[in-house]
Amino acid sequence: MPPPPGLGEVLVHVTARAMHAIDLRTVTGAHRSSKDASVPLFETVRPGLEGVGEIVALSPRVARSSRLRLGMRVAFFPARYAWSEIVTVAEKFATPVPDDMPDEVAGQIHRVPLMAMMLFRCAQLSGASKNGGAIVVSAAGSSVGRILCALLSEAGLPLVALVRRADAVAEFHAMHKGLRCIATSNPNWPRQLVQALDGRPLHVIVDPVGGDLATELIEKLDRHGTFLTYGDLSGERMTVDTMHLASRFLSIKGLSVDSWANLGERVRRRDIEQIFDLARRRPELFPVAGHYDLAEISQAAAHVQDIRRRGCVVLTS
Ligand SMILES: NC(=O)c1ccc[n+]([C@@H]2O[C@H](COP(=O)([O-])OP(=O)(O)OC[C@H]3O[C@@H](n4cnc5c(N)ncnc54)[C@H](OP(=O)(O)O)[C@@H]3O)[C@@H](O)[C@H]2O)c1
């Protein structure tokens, strides 16, 4: 049991939390750049940053001044050790959950959808739609990718989605009617991409894969284009011709959802409201692959790593 809540904190009895592949990479130490000593080594990491549950204690200041109340159901991010039953959460990172939002959705509304939201904003700021430009989203069938594609298409931004398997194209179209999607397993994919762009300049690439795919994609960016990276699914480095970067005025930008907590309160609240709205309108974007009790954490981890998994693995307690 954690200590009583400190100034500005609440204790939450967690009922559901998402288990992501990135959590497992954190546990094993793989989610750490070899050059970045600011990220703790895996021996000291206790995973779990988001979840949903009931407030079981509040600091006197929170009880007096905040919108939070004892017994209220809240979703939270970031907090430490969310794979525990009781978690200490800073009041500013706890959001009351509407009654119509099931725990299995509320427990996954932060890390993945917020990453998609941040990428969406950054793509817009990078001039994605300037002069009829287009955006390419790789790993478009991933949890982040499918929400990002929904946000981009709802905003009317032209995009081409890339997935790696031929049968993932049909899965993508089942979720996103009318969007262009190409499988990179087809050796002709670069030509198909040029056709799908239909003469539009490629202004923004959003890529969590890295490696050869990223290397090949960045060559296709138009002048002043931006390459946004947020993961390394391939586990491989990308190679960049620096002269190509310089002569075409290209930018490469890395993003992490970790910086969301530093955004202003108004932006954070609006982001969560938009995600609640998206989850209501497009529940298919928040699929659940399986539920596991905390005591079944090994089975849950195996399911997260199963390549046939489609959707979020939820840990309950
Ligand atoms: N920076 C951050 O803060 C942050 C936050 C969230 C996620 N991420 C990163 O975003 C990435 C996606 O996470 P997620 O939770 O959305 O993924 P996910 O739902 O677990 O799905 C993984 C997807 O990536 C595809 N994939 C796997 N390896 C690939 C490869 N080598 N080349 C092309 N596609 C590949 C899979 O395709 P198949 O269907 O063919 O298997 C699947 O569609 C991860 O790298 C994760 O670490 C970063």
SSE arrangement:
Layout: E1 9-19, H1 21-27, E2 51-58, H2 60-65, E3 73-76, E4 86-90, E5 94-96, H3 103-106, H4 111-125, E6 134-137, H5 143-154, E7 159-163, H6 167-175, E8 180-183, H7 189-197, E9 202-207, H8 211-218, E10 226-229, H9 242-248, E11 251-254, H10 265-281, E12 288-293, H11 297-305, E13 312-316
Parallel strand pairs: 6-7, 6-9, 7-8, 9-10, 10-11, 12-13
Antiparallel strand pairs: 1-2, 1-4, 1-13, 2-3, 3-5
Bound molecules: NADP nicotinamide-adenine-dinucleotide phosphate.
The site of NADP nicotinamide-adenine-dinucleotide phosphate has 24 residues, from helix 1, helix 4 and helix 5.
Q: For the CA atoms, what is the radius of gyration?
A: 20 Å
How many helix segments?
11
Shape: globular
CATH fold-level assignment of the largest domain? Rossmann fold
Q: How many structural units, i.e. domains?
A: 2
Mind telling me the CATH class of the largest domain?
A: Alpha Beta
Q: Give the termini distance in whole angstroms.
A: 15 Å
Portion in helices: 25-40%
In brief, what are we looking at here?
By secondary structure, this protein is an alpha/beta fold. It has 11 helices and 13 strands. It is 32% helix and 22% strand.
Task: Please tell me about this protein's structure.
By secondary structure, this protein is of the alpha/beta class. The chain folds into 2 domains: 9-109 and 286-316, Alpha-Beta Complex (Quinone Oxidoreductase, Chain A, domain 1), CATH 3.90.180.10; 112-257, NAD(P)-binding Rossmann-like Domain (Rossmann fold, 3-Layer(aba) Sandwich). Helices cover 32% and strands 22% of the residues. The strands form 2 sheets. Strands 1, 2, 3, 4, 5, 12 and 13 form a 7-stranded mixed beta sheet that branches. Strand 12 (288-293), helix 11 and strand 13 form a beta-alpha-beta unit. Helix 4 (111-125) packs across helix 5. The longest helix is centred in the last third of the chain and has 17 residues, at 265-281. The radius of gyration is 20 Å and the shape is globular. NADP nicotinamide-adenine-dinucleotide phosphate (NAP) binds at residues 20-22, 111-112, 115, 139, 141-144, 164-165, 168, 208-209, 230-231, 233-234, 256-258, 307.
